[in-house]
């Protein structure tokens, strides 16, 4: 069976707000297939002014705290960018893409199936690095 990427209806450029963007990222993340032990925290980072668009940068920090280690040894970040075009009609939806820390690969919500393994790999690599130091 072919997998259909889960997505949400993103807001239009004219209705975009910074907090609304963060809430939509939260809504989109809720479609990801991750174990309930993962906790995350999202935040707005900054606004970037470009010639033909404005970009709004967000970070979602992931970790798996446990009863024995409530403060996790490492975290994994997923960075989101919401882009508002200055030349396309305001009634079009915002453009959204995201990437994981330590990766240059850019994902689009409508084309990507998020993998929990990506978060695990980042955290495992950080722990291996810390133990080797």
TrEMBL record:
Domain of life: Eukaryota
GO cellular component: cAMP-dependent protein kinase complex
Name of protein: AKA14 protein
The encoding gene: Akap14
Coiled-coil residue windows: none
Organism: Anseranas semipalmata (Magpie goose)
GO terms for MF: protein kinase A regulatory subunit binding
Family annotation (InterPro entries): AKAP, AKAP_28
